[in-house]
UniProtKB/TrEMBL annotation:
This is DUF4861 domain-containing protein. Pfam families: DUF4861. It comes from the Bacteria. It comes from Flagellimonas algicola. InterPro entries: DUF4861.
Amino acid sequence: MNKILISLLSFAFINSCTPEDSGFTFIVENELGMDRAFETVELTSAFLGVDNLNNYGIQDFETKEVLVSQGVDTDKNQYADVLLFQPRMKANSKRKFELIEIHHSKRPKSKSVCFSRFVPERMDDYAWENDKVAFRVFGPKAQKMAEENQEGGTLSSGVDAWLKRVEYPIINKWYRKELKTEGSYHEDDGEGLDNFHVGPSRGVGGLAIKKDSTYYFSKNFSNWQHIASGPIRTSFYLEYDDWDAKGALIKETKLISLDKGSNLSRFEVSLEGTEHIAAGITLHEKDGVVMDNEAQGWLSYWQPHGDSELGSAIVAPPSVFKDIETYETDQVDLSNAYAHLQVKDGKVIYYAGFGWKKSGQFKSQKEWEDYLSEFALKLSKPLKVE
């Protein structure tokens, strides 16, 4: 497998010793009647008029507070061309910010990090996390082992959920626990655990294509490319070998990202061979409750899970959200709830994630569904920048 690795793109800001005003100011506006936080504002180099954002940051114009920010190199030339930050916004408010040059030693530190990496020491997982949730998907070695009936293989393009209940990163620690100690990430030692069974199901946000009454899936990802990890966002690409959906040849790649404070990963899927997809969430034992709000663009499943409860969901813009289906079958792991989504110009974007009651983030099914409604509302009315 051709393994492409781009270095972590939380850039060192090296040119100045103290914050220096660049002279560029801009306004962020919240048009909703609610306070907002943990929403990412993206500023491109074209908007800011700076080709290389490696040594720039964001400062509140009035208070001169320097905010946590992250540069991302989207065109892979080693220079940041996007600058990310998350302003706290009061209801129906505007705030003025300025672009500043700043030395890395003067940059504010974040207590948490959005992180992802390829995991060759456990076959070939790709795992990602933020301060709320963690996920993983499975690669070609795990697929080959499964197809050859070797123990430990996994044949699935479903998305696995790691149920964490701490804000700090756990991916490296849990893999080390599983592979290097007598402990296991299947046991909760206070940080959470992996007790979310995926199998061939869609897990939390796996993709399918429906032909007649049958759902077709890709196999494991075949290639990966890390883009960024940092205080605001982690992102990466996944490629899949071409696959067949009842005679239709499907070409599929994914750009997946996860931002600080969000329970939902963003899936930007590029496709050839289909004008629609189904984003799915597993029904496990079929003992939970499927709910949806097509007007707002979300599908949810709330279920008993171990000694707690778990909500999982798909959220998409209502303009691409066609309908939902609760697909139940006696075939093991193939019962899923699906959001049917329209592919436009070869691309579809949706969000998928979960909320674990034991983490303390959500106390009930209602709180989880209220979160989805608020997430969808903010998605429809993003923070404005001018």
